[in-house]
Hints:
The chain is mainly α. It is built from five helices and no strands. The protein has one domain.
Amino acid sequence: MPFIAGTHLSVAVFFFPFVFLTTDVIGQVYGRQMAKNFVLAGFLSVILFLVYSFISLALPWSADGLKFQDSYKIIFSVSFRMSVASLLAYLIAEYQDVVAFFFFKKKFGGQSFWLQSNLSNLWSQLLDTLIFMFVAFGGVYSVKTIMLISLPWWLYKVLVGFIYTPLSYVGIYLLRYENKNN
């Protein structure tokens, strides 16, 4: 979608930072292992989507749906590569986010959640962006073009993550409140 200063962004750029923040909230309240489990659950969800997409591409079509078959195959073939790119980026960057978050948590003595979260997200969002872009568009665009696309995506994701930080405190409060009541 067209955005500021002639840049183009995916709508995911505005929503995906929330996933990284959610992982930080889970880690803050439930610890490192639960944050890793959260990442694994997301990974398995994408795997299931990929399996479903592959099966749906391979199954025979009914006669009334044949007029949509080519469009369907184009969309889901492209989304398969994008899903693989997203899966790799998610898995590597999210696990790195957990490691970085707990590194900063130890460094700051568990204080300043907002700083721990945003510092870990700076690095993990960069990894996520670069891995996704190079897997999704490697061989399609030049390295220079991929880097030029990646920079605003990363900056917007970091900015959106920073803006979403107050929601993290709401999440921490709600999870801790829920734990006290159970």
